[in-house]
Specification:
Radius of gyration: 16 Å
Largest sheet: 5 strands, antiparallel
Distance between the termini: 21 Å
Number of helices: 3
Order of helices and strands: HEEEEEEEHH
Structural class: alpha+beta
Number of strands: 7
Strand content: 25-35%
Length: 180
């Protein structure tokens, strides 16, 4: 297992929809293990394979900061099959430097996915887990949470990012809070 480099906006890898995983094998398991270690080290609540430059429909999630690993999810080819209600949640992202915003998402979701053990599962989720699942599945579709905010807010963020890059502060330190 190795820590992987997390791609940052505006990296093209983050804009490209990921390919479905056709064969769950040892290299899939190794990638997932490295993603888990990278997510915890970041620190993050979730991580999608495109964020580490891998065009595969794989996500890892752990929303329990009190007991890391106890509720760890490793999902392959996840998809939302049902969604209802509406919730607004302040989101941040390991791939979006120094920015959070309120994002409206479905309040409850039903997600179907495969596990590394090649079992198909269904997950019902609400609150943070529902938000995190939708956030990470968006990554698999080439979308970031900033694609879900107003154009004006997105443009203001892009200007802020250009300034951070110009000042050499764009990737110099870890985020102060845990990111999805």
């Amino acid at each position: 297992m190795a820590l992987l480099r997390i791609r940052k906006f505006p990296d093209d890898a983050l804009k490209t929809p990921a390919a479905p995983v056709a064969d769950i094998n040892g290299s899939t398991a190794a990638l997932i293990d490295s993603m888990v270690q990278t997510m915890y080290a970041a620190p993050g609540v979730g991580l999608a394979a495109p964020q580490v430059g891998e065009s595969q429909r794989i996500i890892v999630l752990d929303t329990d900061h009190e007991d890391p690993g106890k509720h760890l999810l490793k999902l392959i080819n996840p998809r939302v099959v049902e969604a209802e209600g509406s919730i607004v949640w302040e989101e941040g992202c390991l791939s979006v430097i120094d920015y959070t915003a309120d994002v409206e998402r479905a309040a409850r979701v039903l997600v179907r996915a495969w596990t590394p053990e090649q079992k198909e599962i269904e997950l019902e989720a609400d609150e943070l887990l529902a938000v995190a699942l939708q956030h990470e599945i968006d990554h698999l579709d080439g979308k970031l949470f900033i694609d879900r905010i107003s154009r004006i807010k997105r443009e203001l963020y892009k200007r802020k990012l250009k300034k951070l890059i110009k000042e050499g502060k764009a990737d110099s330190e870890r985020p102060s809070t845990v990111r999805i």
